[in-house]
Specification:
The protein has 219 residues and is of the alpha+beta class. The chain contains 5 helices and 11 strands, in the order αββββββββααβααββ. A hairpin with a 3-residue loop joins β10 and β11. The longest helix has 28 residues.
Length: 219
């Protein structure tokens, strides 16, 4: 299981100060089973959630029954920050454990209630949180860019280009999750990926998608 000092939230904070933060906040660690809800959209936001082990999906249901995956969070990530002082009375979406997950529930009030000592570790964790918020906002902007694509082929190509490293994309989602993330059906996604393979643009296996013809992805 990931140690707190290894996470971005507690970056540059030593172990003694982490212990002080944990005592001050009374943060608790909980374990969730696959499919179990960490919170539902009608729950009142109280915590920042830090994943020490496992993965969690942020999902939103449509009236039709279709489910949209807003994003996936994995070991070391935080979630629930979307509702920091927004006045929102509920979460708006659900958080569901994708695998067995160990999660730290960290009270939001700690980020606003500086004590008279103005502790350096309190300032550092706030700086870390601002950097995390900035990175996640940028990630959501990239998703909006993908979803603004007109065709399914365009969505796949933009997603591949945004996530490519060394000529390939590591798959952190299964086919169903990726389809939900792109806002399409799984059969449509599978058919389009097969067409792209036949056209020798990509090769797909269970763990990655390898780019064969980069130039043709710029549709």
């Amino acid at each position: 299981m990931l140690k707190l000092a290894q996470t971005e939230l507690f970056r540059d904070i030593d172990q003694d100060d982490i212990a002080k933060i944990m005592k001050c906040t009374r943060a608790v660690t909980k374990e969730y089973q696959p499919g179990q809800y960490i919170f539902r959209e009608e729950d009142i936001p109280e915590f920042l959630y830090l994943i020490l082990e496992g993965s969690v999906s942020m999902v939103k249901d449509f009236a039709s029954g279709r489910q949209d995956i807003l994003y996936l969070a994995s070991t070391g990530d935080v979630f629930g920050e979307d509702f920091l002082k927004t006045g929102q009375r509920g979460y708006w979406f659900d958080a569901v454990a994708e695998s067995k997950a160990v999660i730290l529930l960290f009270p939001w009030r700690f980020f606003f209630e500086f004590c008279s000592n103005a502790c350096g570790h309190h300032q550092q964790i706030n700086r870390n949180m601002l950097e995390i918020l900035s990175a996640k906002n940028f990630s959501m902007m990239k998703k909006l860019h993908i979803l603004s694509s007109v065709t399914l082929r365009e969505k796949i190509c933009v997603w591949l280009l945004e996530n490519m490293e060394n000529g390939s994309v590591k798959l952190t989602m299964n086919r169903e999750q990726l389809a939900a993330y792109l806002g399409v059906t799984r059969p449509s996604l599978s058919r389009e990926l097969m067409r792209m393979q036949k056209e020798q643009l990509i090769t797909v296996d269970k763990k990655q998608i390898r780019i064969l013809d980069l130039d043709k992805l710029y549709v």
